[in-house]
Structure formats: C-alpha cells, structure tokens
Amino acid sequence: MMPDGIDAVAWMPQLAGRIDRLQGRDEIERVLDDAKYLMDALDPELQEPAYQLIEALRQRLDQARP
C-alpha cells in the first residue's frame, strides 16, 4: 500500500510513463493495488484517466510472466 503523503496526481502520470518497464506479476499487482488505492484521493475529473491506467495495468498483468 502507498504511504501517506503521496501525491496521487503526480504519481499517476509517473506510473503511466514506466508501465512498459514493469516486470513480473508481483510488481504489476503491487502497482495495480496502489493505483486502485489512490483512486479515492483523486478529483472526480481525473478519475477517467486513472481508470484507463488501471485497465492498462490489468492488460499488462494478463501478459506478464509468472
């Protein structure tokens, strides 16, 4: 889980920029859990791009090696 004080608005684009470099199911699952957790902190206007990021993470997880 993400520690308190993390800026969700800044973290999400940073994650999107490195999504292709995530390796292995464990790492992707951990980041996916963090993204879901941070959804609650986002302004409703920013939630749609966050949902798209979560969907991209789920697709990446489906393709990840065990």
Please explain how this structure is put together.
There is one protein chain. The chain is an all-alpha fold. The chain is built from three helices and no strands. Helix 2 (24-39) runs antiparallel to helix 3 (47-63). The two termini are 21 Å apart. The mean pLDDT is 86.
Task: Write out key terms for the chains shown.
66 residues, mainly alpha, globular
* Overall shape: globular
Average pLDDT, all residues: 86
N- to C-terminal separation?
Answer: 21 Å
- Please write the string of helix (H) and strand (E) elements: HHH
How many H/I helices? 3
Computed Rg: 11 Å
What portion of the residues fall into strands of 2 or more residues? Answer: under 5%
Q: How would you sum up the major sheet?
A: none
Helix content: 55-70%
Q: Quick gist of this model?
A:
The protein is 67% helix and 0% strand. It is mainly α and 66 residues long.
Break the fold down into its secondary structure elements and pairings.
Blueprint: H1 8-18, H2 24-39, H3 47-63
Helix pairs in contact: 2-3
